[in-house]
Amino acid sequence: MEGYDPAMSFGDEVAAIYDDEPRGDEEDAVAFLARLAGEGPALELAIGTGRIALPLAARGVRVDGIDISPAMVAKLRDKPGGDQLSVTIGDFADVPVDGMYRLIYVVFNTLQNLLTQDDQVRCFRNVAAHLLDDGVFVVEAMVPNFLHQLNDGQYVHAESIGVDEVWLDIGHHDPIEQRHDENHVRLTNEGVRLFPIVQRYTWPSELDLMARIAGLRLKERWDGWNREPFTSTGNVVSVFGR
User: Taking the domains of the chain in order of start, what are their residue ranges?
Assistant: First the structure.
């Protein structure tokens, strides 16, 4: 996507509406992560508005975070307990924090916001450098589920249609770079708003190779936070450790 900057996907406009429609998996995700965190500490890559970090911290786990977006972190700070979390503004691929963690995690396909394989491998390596010997790295990343929608490498999909508002999802696929250029388009009587995002998708087997490069190994893989058997049809949750 020409002119795309990852920071534009999580600026003021997106932060203002990010929590409007909860995904609904927060309780299950937090339970899954809390069991692995034990007494902690835990680190969330791309902590955002604290959708997962705040309820995890409420369970008594110390949670730190990294995020590229001051606007998203400002929303976190406005929530109860948000001022108690240590958050570093920066590129989560660098893992720019001190200390070691029992749990490091990244949810909701966010690893795929790193747009090159090199950056994704760099993230794995830096995560490994901050894991305790018995620590784990949890990655939630969906197996690409848009390929069936493609027509000549692109698609237009109506996400919702109302009397005074229409949301369109417009996408383009680059199979060489494994990139998915996407723009969520909001149409209203007041005008058009665009919410672009670009992701470099990863296959589970590719995540396993990235982990090996970083000195980690796959320990568990599930189709969701409730430990459904892996069938490659849902949000894949992978757990890596030494």
Answer: 6-144+202-241, 147-198
- In this predicted structure, what is the pLDDT of residue 8? 66
pLDDT one-digit tens code per residue, 77-99? 999 999 999 999 999 999 999 99
Report CA 121 to chain centroid distance, whole Å. 16
List the beta strands (DSSP E) in 31-130.
42-45, 63-67, 86-89, 101-106
- Overall pTM > 0.85: yes
What's the Cα-to-Cα distance from 115 to each of 10, 40, 44, 179, rounded to whole Å?
A: 15, 30, 19, 7
What CATH architecture applies to the domain 147-198? Single Sheet (2.20)
E-only strand ranges, 118-225:
131-142, 154-161, 165-174, 179-188, 191-200, 217-222
Compute the residue count for the chain: 242
- Token pair recorded at residue 69: 């977006």
Asked if 160 and 166 count as a contact pair (C-beta separation under 8 A), the reply is yes
- Is 6-144+202-241 in CATH node 3.40.50.150? yes
Calpha distance 179→1 (Å, rounded): 10
| Mean pLDDT of the chain, nearest integer | 90
Q: What is the DSSP letter of 77?
A: H
The answer to whether 56 and 32 have CB atoms below 8 angstroms apart is: no
Instruction: State how far the Cα of 128 lies from the Cα of 222, in Å rounded to an integer.
Output: 21
